[in-house]
Amino acid sequence: MDRDELAPLIDHTVLGPETTIDDVEAVLDDAADYGMNACIPPYAVGHAADYAPEVTLATVIGFPHGQNDPDVKRREGVLAWKAGADELDVVINVGRLEAGQLEAVADELAELVAAVPIPVKVIVETALLTDEQKRSACEAAREADAAMVKTSTGFADGGATVADVELMSESLPVKASGGVGSYEEAMAMLEAGAERIGASSGVEILEGAPE
Ligand SMILES: O=C[C@H](O)COP(=O)(O)O
């Protein structure tokens, strides 16, 4: 896959706790130059939509731990959409998932999906889950009519793996994120079935791609 084919599959990402507006603008500049999407913190969405209207903008909801009250997550999603977000990446409530409260997990996601007219991706944070829990998380996301499932926040101890992309692809399209740092790693995720890559290394990935 060459650089131009790969670029639109990448959500070039900046989500760290110290992310400034300058950091967001730098990611948007790179996203615009290369033809990538961008994934940025919620507080920066309004500015980003004005600064780089040509870039498809994702933001994160309930980030990074996913344990906000469901009403807060829904409201956060609506505010982000109204501010200009094109897609939402919401962190699942891992505590509820691990406690087996799958109906509550799915209901919360369904409320968010129903509240916004844009695609919702569900971050399941695979590093914290058993394979059975990963399957349950993906099933809850599918029941909630989410558009995709996403492996990781990038802030847990592990990120995307080929095995997890294969497992998750059985339920919904997958965004592989967390630790994807090179063209070869991105291609391994796509070959495993991923349809999107989330990475703070979007430029490095594309610089390794054939032109
Ligand atoms: O949502 C995507 C992740 O935050 C990116 O993680 P990364 O910095 O390991 O590429």
Automatic annotation (TrEMBL):
EC number annotated for this UniProt entry: 4.1.2.4
Disulfide bond as UniProt keyword: no
Keywords, ordered alphabetically: Cytoplasm, Lyase, Schiff base
Catalytic activity: 2-deoxy-D-ribose 5-phosphate = D-glyceraldehyde 3-phosphate + acetaldehyde
Leader sequence residues: none
Main location: cytoplasm
Origin: domain of life: Archaea
Subcellular location: Cytoplasm
Gene Ontology cellular component annotations, sorted alphabetically: cytoplasm
GO biological process, one term: deoxyribonucleotide catabolic process
Active site: 89 (proton donor/acceptor), 150 (schiff-base intermediate with acetaldehyde), 175 (proton donor/acceptor)
Parts forming coiled coils: none
Keyword Aminoacyl-tRNA synthetase attributed: no
Broad EC category: lyase
Pathway(s) this gene product operates in, as recorded in its UniProt entry: Carbohydrate degradation; 2-deoxy-D-ribose 1-phosphate degradation; D-glyceraldehyde 3-phosphate and acetaldehyde from 2-deoxy-alpha-D-ribose 1-phosphate: step 2/2
Family statement: Belongs to the DeoC/FbaB aldolase family. DeoC type 1 subfamily.
Reported function: Catalyzes a reversible aldol reaction between acetaldehyde and D-glyceraldehyde 3-phosphate to generate 2-deoxy-D-ribose 5-phosphate.
Annotated protein name in UniProt: Deoxyribose-phosphate aldolase
Native species: Natronococcus jeotgali DSM 18795
Gene: deoC
